[in-house]
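Notes continue from the previous slide.

Worked example: a multi-chain complex. Inputs as given:
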Amino acid sequence: MPELPEVEIIRRGLEKYIVGKTIVGVEVRLEKIFIGQTHQIVGARIEAIRRFGKGLVIDLSNGYSITAHVKMTGQFVYVGGETQGFHPKLVTYTHLPDKHTHVIFSLSNSSGGVSRLFYNDIRQFGWLRVVRAEDVLSQAFFKSLGPEPFRDLTIKYFRKVLASSNMPIKPLLMDQRKISGIGNIYANDALYLSRIDPRRKSSSLTKVEIGCLFRAILEVLEVGLKYGGASEMNYIHVDGTQGEYQKHFLVYGQGDKACRRCGGMVKKIKQAGRGTFYCPNCQI
DNA sequence: CACTAAACCTGGGAGC
DNA sequence: TGCTCCCAGGTTTAGT
């Protein structure tokens, strides 16, 4: 379920553990996951980690970058001296690689110590792609992304997008071409927080409702970040620990449970093929 | 162009 | 124990 907060937490983890290290080897165990040639990245130093929407970019010292998308079940897990053996929340990844490990990077630090970064992905939907640094943003995925919260998404643009769409508001929030970073969990929770029915036609929202929803989006993403993301399915941090936001869901995953605001029954419906949770009593 | 539906995959849970 | 069926959701592609 990685959305903006989860991918940002992964970005920070990669920044902490792999920036400054040199790639000394790459083992690709599942060809379709890794698009590119391993010789393009072996020998290069990792310079920076960037994020655009739910996509990651690992910039290397030789003019290449590795772009990545973890989709729903991808994991980057670093195993080295810095992460070994003392985390109370560690989800035990000392047994890596396992059958879901598709790419293994061997890294070395300036004093020659070797560590490893594993890319695991149960459902194999994610991808890693080697591209020239200058071509990253012209790659189809990155090119298609709309503005994102906390960066270039403005209330003015948000009003314009909503006003010009006949879609229900919830699928619109998840449309990465219009706004990037929001997925199913945070779309559900932002609409709940702003008391808006997810089925409402986007263009029917009033100026006040739009302002309220805009603030709710920033709020839920911030809370998600604060708790280290939602480890509902397979998402974990680069050091192998779990996020906690799944313990603080407002309405996501609460089907047939009591609404925490009014006590009414939370309803689950399907919109554009995705599960939608809302309280029919307090979301109007 | 807008929009929908299926495809990509595996694991976990329900029902039998 | 083990079978079938369904569900999870972020793109990506095919189709209307």
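Summary box: The longest strand of chain A covers residues 101-108. Chain A has a mean pLDDT of 93.
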